[in-house]
Write a structure and sequence with these properties.
Elements lengths: L5 E6 L5 H9 L4 E7 L3 H11 L2 E2 L3 H6 L4 E4 L6 H10 L3 E4 L7 H13 L4 E3 L7 H11 L19 H5 L13 H18 L18
Parallel strand pairs: 1-2, 1-4, 2-3, 4-5, 5-6
Helix pairs in contact: 4-5, 6-8
């Protein structure tokens, strides 16, 4: 084991965990050290397939030598695991969105600040080559002074997408359906290119799926 590598853990070994695992393994100074899931059998199987440890309890995970955690739980459970992890001195890479309410998001950010640990959200679209080219052009003033930016996300998620994972489309664990889970990447790019906002308004409608 290379002691110069950051020991990463994954909390939540569902579908997205493999993406986190692949990213960790492609990073020269990181290694997948341990995983945890409330479904112990799922964590054990994931650990066996990927050659790492698995924690039997969340407390065991926090007591281990893991240095950074990627949070891959349902969105509405991010703060529930990330806040105690930050207090235990673990750096946090959290799936988007950081949380499903402003208050829980603020609690997470403030806890990481007071615990002196790093916090980052997964917004991988920023690192696409095309996005980097646009960002460099914006920063260099090639488009002049931006006065208007628009974005459209024409994605569709069928009913199986929601039924295959019971937390999706729920207010408590999802918080916004396709807007929160897919459109958030495009919203992030608007912020990346143009800077922060001072005011937000919005309209919503449910046109195809029943309320959960």
């Amino acid at each position: 084991m290379n002691m110069n590598k950051v020991k990463f853990g994954i909390v939540g070994t569902g579908a997205i965990a493999k993406v986190h695992m692949d990213a960790i393994r492609q990073t020269d100074n990181a290694e997948l050290y341990i995983v945890y899931d409330k479904i112990t059998e799922r964590a054990a199987e994931f650990a066996k397939r990927n050659g790492c440890r698995h924690a039997l309890t969340f407390e065991d995970l926090l007591a281990s030598d893991v240095q950074a955690l990627t949070i891959a739980t349902p969105s509405g459970l991010h703060a529930e695991v990330a806040i105690p992890a930050a207090r235990a001195g673990k750096h946090i890479l959290c799936e988007k969105p950081l949380e499903v309410t402003v208050s829980k998001t603020n609690d997470l950010v403030r806890t990481c600040e007071s615990s002196n640990v790093r916090l980052s959200a997964v917004f991988q679209s920023r690192y696409a080559r095309s996005v980097q080219v646009i960002k460099q052009a914006v920063d260099a003033g090639r488009f002049g002074e931006p006065v208007l930016a628009t974005a459209s996300v024409r994605w569709f998620r069928n009913k199986e997408y929601y039924s295959n994972a019971g937390w999706r489309g729920t207010w408590s664990l999802d918080g916004g359906g396709a807007l929160m889970n897919q459109g958030i990447h495009t919203v992030d790019l608007l912020l990346y290119f143009n800077g922060d906002v001072s005011e937000v308004t919005g309209r919503t409608a449910r046109l195809l799926h029943k309320s959960i």
